[in-house]
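Priority: low. Protein: Thiol-disulfide isomerase/thioredoxin. Input follows.
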Amino acid sequence: MTDPTSSQPSRLGRRTFLRAAMLAAAALPLAACVGEEDPLAKQAREGNNKNYIAGDGSVQEYGPKSRTEPVEINATAYDGSKIDSADWAGQVTVLNFWYAACAPCRIEAPHMVELSDEFKGKAEFIGINVRDEKDAAEAFERTFGIKYPSVQDTQGAIQLAMTKYVPLQAVPTTLVLDRQGRVSARILGVAEKPTLKALINTALTESL
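Result:
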Protein backbone atom coordinates (compact mmCIF):
# COMPACT_ATOMS: atom_id res chain seq x y z
CA MET A 1 0.00 0.00 0.00
CA THR A 2 1.29 3.48 -0.86
CA ASP A 3 2.33 5.60 2.10
CA PRO A 4 -0.05 8.62 2.01
CA THR A 5 2.72 10.86 3.31
CA SER A 6 5.15 9.94 0.57
CA SER A 7 4.04 12.85 -1.66
CA GLN A 8 4.63 15.51 0.99
CA PRO A 9 8.31 16.23 0.16
CA SER A 10 7.47 16.73 -3.52
CA ARG A 11 4.65 19.11 -2.60
CA LEU A 12 7.01 21.05 -0.34
CA GLY A 13 9.59 21.08 -3.10
CA ARG A 14 7.10 22.51 -5.58
CA ARG A 15 6.00 25.18 -3.10
CA THR A 16 9.62 26.17 -2.43
CA PHE A 17 10.30 26.33 -6.17
CA LEU A 18 7.23 28.49 -6.85
CA ARG A 19 8.07 30.87 -4.01
CA ALA A 20 11.64 31.23 -5.29
CA ALA A 21 10.34 31.83 -8.82
CA MET A 22 7.98 34.55 -7.62
CA LEU A 23 10.75 36.33 -5.70
CA ALA A 24 13.06 36.10 -8.69
CA ALA A 25 10.41 37.55 -11.01
CA ALA A 26 9.75 40.43 -8.65
CA ALA A 27 13.44 41.33 -8.76
CA LEU A 28 13.59 41.56 -12.55
CA PRO A 29 14.49 45.03 -13.86
CA LEU A 30 11.51 46.95 -15.15
CA ALA A 31 13.28 48.89 -17.89
CA ALA A 32 11.74 48.20 -21.29
CA CYS A 33 13.85 48.08 -24.46
CA VAL A 34 12.44 49.41 -27.68
CA GLY A 35 11.79 46.57 -30.10
CA GLU A 36 12.39 43.86 -27.47
CA GLU A 37 9.45 42.06 -25.88
CA ASP A 38 9.22 42.31 -22.12
CA PRO A 39 10.32 38.87 -20.74
CA LEU A 40 7.39 38.60 -18.33
CA ALA A 41 4.95 39.62 -21.03
CA LYS A 42 6.44 36.91 -23.26
CA GLN A 43 5.92 34.43 -20.43
CA ALA A 44 2.25 35.30 -20.24
CA ARG A 45 1.82 34.87 -23.99
CA GLU A 46 3.28 31.37 -23.64
CA GLY A 47 0.35 30.54 -21.39
CA ASN A 48 2.25 28.78 -18.60
CA ASN A 49 0.50 30.76 -15.83
CA LYS A 50 3.65 31.52 -13.81
CA ASN A 51 3.75 34.15 -11.07
CA TYR A 52 0.13 35.21 -11.25
CA ILE A 53 -3.41 33.99 -10.77
CA ALA A 54 -4.43 33.34 -14.33
CA GLY A 55 -7.49 34.93 -15.87
CA ASP A 56 -8.77 33.88 -19.26
CA GLY A 57 -9.74 37.33 -20.50
CA SER A 58 -13.42 36.56 -19.95
CA VAL A 59 -15.81 39.48 -19.85
CA GLN A 60 -18.86 39.75 -17.63
CA GLU A 61 -21.31 42.61 -18.21
CA TYR A 62 -23.93 43.53 -15.62
CA GLY A 63 -27.21 45.06 -16.66
CA PRO A 64 -28.40 48.14 -14.73
CA LYS A 65 -30.93 46.12 -12.74
CA SER A 66 -28.36 43.52 -11.65
CA ARG A 67 -25.70 45.96 -10.41
CA THR A 68 -24.83 46.31 -6.76
CA GLU A 69 -24.54 49.55 -4.83
CA PRO A 70 -21.80 52.05 -5.81
CA VAL A 71 -18.22 51.02 -5.07
CA GLU A 72 -16.69 52.86 -2.12
CA ILE A 73 -12.95 53.51 -1.96
CA ASN A 74 -11.09 56.07 0.11
CA ALA A 75 -7.31 55.83 -0.11
CA THR A 76 -4.07 57.62 -0.92
CA ALA A 77 -2.24 56.93 -4.17
CA TYR A 78 1.52 56.37 -4.47
CA ASP A 79 1.87 59.95 -5.74
CA GLY A 80 0.12 61.30 -2.63
CA SER A 81 -3.15 62.17 -4.33
CA LYS A 82 -6.39 61.35 -2.53
CA ILE A 83 -8.66 58.74 -4.12
CA ASP A 84 -12.26 59.14 -2.99
CA SER A 85 -15.09 57.32 -4.75
CA ALA A 86 -17.39 60.19 -3.79
CA ASP A 87 -15.60 62.20 -6.49
CA TRP A 88 -16.58 59.70 -9.21
CA ALA A 89 -20.25 60.64 -9.29
CA GLY A 90 -21.45 61.30 -12.82
CA GLN A 91 -18.38 59.87 -14.56
CA VAL A 92 -17.25 56.45 -15.74
CA THR A 93 -14.35 54.93 -13.77
CA VAL A 94 -11.96 52.12 -14.66
CA LEU A 95 -10.31 50.18 -11.82
CA ASN A 96 -7.34 48.03 -12.81
CA PHE A 97 -5.92 45.54 -10.27
CA TRP A 98 -2.26 44.83 -10.99
CA TYR A 99 1.29 44.33 -9.74
CA ALA A 100 4.69 44.85 -11.35
CA ALA A 101 5.86 41.23 -11.79
CA CYS A 102 2.49 40.13 -13.17
CA ALA A 103 3.17 39.18 -16.79
CA PRO A 104 -0.35 39.85 -18.16
CA CYS A 105 -0.36 43.19 -16.33
CA ARG A 106 2.62 44.17 -18.44
CA ILE A 107 0.88 43.08 -21.62
CA GLU A 108 -2.15 45.24 -20.95
CA ALA A 109 -0.31 48.28 -19.52
CA PRO A 110 0.15 49.97 -22.93
CA HIS A 111 -3.58 49.48 -23.62
CA MET A 112 -4.41 51.16 -20.32
CA VAL A 113 -2.16 54.10 -21.12
CA GLU A 114 -3.64 54.56 -24.59
CA LEU A 115 -7.23 54.34 -23.38
CA SER A 116 -6.66 56.63 -20.40
CA ASP A 117 -5.40 59.24 -22.88
CA GLU A 118 -8.22 58.59 -25.33
CA PHE A 119 -10.92 58.93 -22.67
CA LYS A 120 -9.29 61.78 -20.77
CA GLY A 121 -12.03 63.99 -19.34
CA LYS A 122 -14.64 61.27 -19.93
CA ALA A 123 -13.45 58.31 -17.85
CA GLU A 124 -11.17 58.15 -14.82
CA PHE A 125 -8.52 55.40 -14.62
CA ILE A 126 -7.24 54.19 -11.24
CA GLY A 127 -4.82 51.37 -10.52
CA ILE A 128 -5.07 49.13 -7.47
CA ASN A 129 -1.68 47.53 -6.81
CA VAL A 130 -2.05 44.26 -4.92
CA ARG A 131 1.58 43.51 -4.11
CA ASP A 132 4.19 46.23 -4.64
CA GLU A 133 5.78 48.81 -2.42
CA LYS A 134 6.10 52.36 -3.70
CA ASP A 135 9.48 52.04 -5.49
CA ALA A 136 8.53 48.96 -7.51
CA ALA A 137 5.13 50.38 -8.44
CA GLU A 138 6.57 53.71 -9.56
CA ALA A 139 9.29 51.96 -11.59
CA PHE A 140 6.56 50.05 -13.44
CA GLU A 141 4.63 53.27 -14.05
CA ARG A 142 7.72 54.99 -15.44
CA THR A 143 8.50 52.02 -17.70
CA PHE A 144 5.06 52.07 -19.31
CA GLY A 145 4.37 55.80 -19.08
CA ILE A 146 1.38 55.45 -16.77
CA LYS A 147 0.13 58.85 -15.63
CA TYR A 148 -3.06 57.91 -13.79
CA PRO A 149 -2.76 57.16 -10.03
CA SER A 150 -2.43 53.78 -8.37
CA VAL A 151 -3.28 52.85 -4.79
CA GLN A 152 -1.26 50.37 -2.74
CA ASP A 153 -3.38 47.48 -1.47
CA THR A 154 -0.78 45.00 -0.26
CA GLN A 155 -2.85 44.32 2.86
CA GLY A 156 -5.85 43.45 0.69
CA ALA A 157 -8.36 45.85 2.24
CA ILE A 158 -9.71 47.09 -1.08
CA GLN A 159 -9.69 43.60 -2.59
CA LEU A 160 -11.66 42.30 0.39
CA ALA A 161 -14.13 45.18 0.17
CA MET A 162 -14.69 44.41 -3.51
CA THR A 163 -16.14 40.98 -2.67
CA LYS A 164 -19.47 42.60 -1.84
CA TYR A 165 -19.63 44.02 -5.37
CA VAL A 166 -18.04 41.42 -7.69
CA PRO A 167 -15.39 38.72 -7.10
CA LEU A 168 -12.00 39.63 -8.56
CA GLN A 169 -10.71 36.03 -8.96
CA ALA A 170 -7.60 36.94 -10.97
CA VAL A 171 -4.78 39.42 -11.41
CA PRO A 172 -5.13 41.44 -13.48
CA THR A 173 -8.80 42.23 -13.14
CA THR A 174 -10.32 45.35 -14.68
CA LEU A 175 -13.66 46.79 -13.58
CA VAL A 176 -15.68 49.42 -15.41
CA LEU A 177 -17.91 51.46 -13.14
CA ASP A 178 -20.95 53.27 -14.49
CA ARG A 179 -21.67 56.92 -13.79
CA GLN A 180 -23.33 55.96 -10.53
CA GLY A 181 -20.17 54.16 -9.42
CA ARG A 182 -21.62 50.65 -9.85
CA VAL A 183 -19.75 47.80 -11.55
CA SER A 184 -21.06 47.53 -15.10
CA ALA A 185 -18.39 45.16 -16.45
CA ARG A 186 -15.49 42.97 -15.34
CA ILE A 187 -12.55 41.56 -17.30
CA LEU A 188 -10.61 38.66 -15.75
CA GLY A 189 -7.09 38.55 -17.15
CA VAL A 190 -5.60 40.74 -19.87
CA ALA A 191 -7.88 43.60 -20.87
CA GLU A 192 -7.65 43.74 -24.65
CA LYS A 193 -7.88 47.31 -25.91
CA PRO A 194 -10.93 46.92 -28.24
CA THR A 195 -12.86 45.07 -25.54
CA LEU A 196 -12.19 47.57 -22.77
CA LYS A 197 -12.86 50.48 -25.12
CA ALA A 198 -16.25 49.03 -26.02
CA LEU A 199 -17.15 48.52 -22.35
CA ILE A 200 -16.21 52.10 -21.50
CA ASN A 201 -18.22 53.45 -24.41
CA THR A 202 -21.22 51.40 -23.33
CA ALA A 203 -21.02 52.85 -19.82
CA LEU A 204 -20.65 56.37 -21.22
CA THR A 205 -23.75 56.08 -23.40
CA GLU A 206 -26.02 54.84 -20.62
CA SER A 207 -28.44 57.29 -19.09
CA LEU A 208 -28.09 58.06 -15.41
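The two ends are 66 Å apart (CA to CA). Confidence is low (pLDDT under 50) at residues 1-38, 47-53.
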